[in-house]
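In response to the reviewer comment on reproducibility (Comment 2.3), we provide here a single inverse folding case reported in full, input and output, so that an independent group could reproduce the run without further information from us. The structure tokens appear first.
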């Protein structure tokens, strides 16, 4: 079964079959409803403190449990991506951030469940660092002292913000 596939029609409960839209949808033979496989969007924040250190979280869940990553998570339906990055950062770190420019958009990494990932620059405006949702530690790291990073998108987003001088 493809990512985002459903077994039964959410409208009438009948079995769904593949539709002709190139694998992007399924169709109900009973009521005709089309079920589209929507992408799963991940968002994250690249946060540097006033000393230029990078905020990372130690993942408490798979994929890559125990490795470090940006505070990040899934975009909810009808949620602004910047609001999602702000929410996820607070849920995972206890820090309130202002979310700024897009750093980049990345393809999802194998096993992550993400279709694509959007990273944003952000700065802390309040709160106290405290490991929260799905993480076991929160810490700031100086360049050259980064721990084992979970995802290539984190490494690239950090490199880009340092190169821009926004760190």
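Designed residues, in position order:
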């Amino acid at each position: 079964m493809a990512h985002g596939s459903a077994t039964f029609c959410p409208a009438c409960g009948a079995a769904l079959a593949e539709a002709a839209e190139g694998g992007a949808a399924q169709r109900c033979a009973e009521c005709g409803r089309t079920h589209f496989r929507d992408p799963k969007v991940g968002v994250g924040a690249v946060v540097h403190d006033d000393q230029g250190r990078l905020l990372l979280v130690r993942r408490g869940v798979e994929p890559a449990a125990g490795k470090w990553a940006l505070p990040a998570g899934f975009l909810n339906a009808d949620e602004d991506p910047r609001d999602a990055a702000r929410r996820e950062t607070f849920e995972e770190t206890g820090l309130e951030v202002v979310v700024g420019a897009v750093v980049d958009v990345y393809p999802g990494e194998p096993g992550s469940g993400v279709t694509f990932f959007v990273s944003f620059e952000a700065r802390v405006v309040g709160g106290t660092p405290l490991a929260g949702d799905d993480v076991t530690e929160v810490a700031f790291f100086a360049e050259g002292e980064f721990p084992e990073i979970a995802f290539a998108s984190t490494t690239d987003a950090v490199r880009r913000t340092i190169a821009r001088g926004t760190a």
